[in-house]
Amino acid sequence: MSQKATMIVDKDFVISSIDDRIYGSFIEHLGRAVYGGIYEPGHPASDERGFRKDVLSLIQDLRVPIIRYPGGNFVSGYDWKDGIGPKDKRPSRLELAWRTVEPNQFGLNEFVDWSRIAGTDVMWAINLGTHGVDEARNIVEYANHSSGSYWSDMRISHGYAKPHGIKTWCLGNEMDGPWQIGAKTAVEYGRIAAESAKVMKWVDPSIELVACGSSGKGMATYPEWEATVLDHTYDHVEFLSLHTYYGNHDNDTATFLGRSLEMEDFIRSVVATCDYIKAKKRSKKTMQLSFDEWNVWFHSNNADKKIEPWQIAPPQLEDVYTMEDALVVGCLLIALLKNSDRVKMACLAQLVNVIAPIMTENGGPAWAQTIYYPYMHASVFGRGQALVPLVQSPKYDTKEITDIPYLESIAVYNEDAKEVTVFAVNRDLTNALPLEVDLRSFGGACGIIEHIVLENEDLKATNTASQPNRIQPNANGNARAEGSKINATLSKASWNVIRIRL
Known about the structure:
Elements: E1 5-8, E2 14-17, E3 24-26, H1 53-62, E4 66-69, E5 93-95, E6 100-102, H2 108-118, E7 121-126, H3 133-144, H4 150-157, E8 168-171, H5 186-203, E9 208-211, H6 224-233, E10 239-246, H7 253-256, H8 259-280, E11 288-296, H9 301-305, H10 323-338, E12 343-349, E13 358-360, E14 366-368, H11 372-381, E15 385-387, E16 390-392, E17 395-396, E18 404-405, E19 407-414, E20 419-426, E21 433-438, E22 447-454, E23 480-482, E24 485-490, E25 494-501
Parallel strand pairs: 1-21, 3-4, 3-12, 4-7, 7-8, 8-9, 9-10, 10-11, 11-12
Antiparallel strand pairs: 1-16, 2-15, 5-6, 13-14, 15-19, 17-18, 19-20, 20-25, 21-24, 22-25, 23-24
């Protein structure tokens, strides 16, 4: 048995009130995310608009607060006007980012309709690859202006009398990447982003804007890109984006489980860059972060190389997730919560079929992947205030990362519900980990509402269409309350949700 871990949480030591949008997600016109994912006319479970109700049900259970759309790399070659108006008049286009054919049968209005049923807000990404300032103002006018102008009246003619009221907008996608259609230098992007932001807010001053940070920490221009872009955009935007994905190509589980420490380091370095520009500009505004692409992504890399180009909605980026991946996603969620004072929005990339918690078969079933469960638990039970976790835990080293604590944990205080939820991952692959949580500042006795555990002896086990429930949470956790202390034994390699009644 490992030595025990302890965590002290104090209701007055608050990291931040958690912005619910930290549990956002992402749907791109890529692979089967849209066609065969959320939208499949003729499917037995689809409604009259072609929206798959079985998929909607799984998404509604996640309580996704905001979804980024329509890309992603896709957006840098996308003309949003192709996806509005009568469907029989919409063009099919060669989609260069992912080398497919885009039929444009699902676009802005369909996504807004769908998002309302799903119970989520829209984070719309504009094209700053092949398009620019004029298109930026026009789409905001179409989506958000009430009436009496060319684009707002066109929306009304398409059957939408009321404005969509899209409040969150991304100024392009990964514009530093040479793979991006219309990639730009930091100065080129900073200028077009600032000018686009300016006119978008002239059309609708109530919107919030996200500028593109680096496509990843490994980019040669990082973090100079962030500094240069913010030099141009600081006064015009509210958020800077971060993107990162993690994989386990070397089958080194111990290192893989420690990647969330790298995520935290990435966040801290971007925060430092933002604050440098704040100081340089003598600004009173603090730049917030939108971690609008994050996930595990590596399983599908080889299969994607074999896909024939110029198909409609081929099965791209269809990672089948393991129990091990679910633990990593749990650790990444905790990392975001530990930095929720600056990370106000985040998007698990993506939501359906494409590196996603939800999978479907065309014409067939939909099911939850392993990573669905930590994401759902965090979204449903992680609303409130993130508390500073004073953790003492045994640690381990790998070749790449040192001082990885076996316990990865955070506590969230929901004052209205009189509840504290502890999210905890035991990274130890061979031993259970005794945990003591000290809630001394809350006073009096506590009670356990439930202790949910996600675990499996086989860390490579997956959920599939034939075995959709092989990995799912159980309520067999052994947490017990003793006054203001909670004691539990976290089984090896497990994700834990301990809900405590105050």
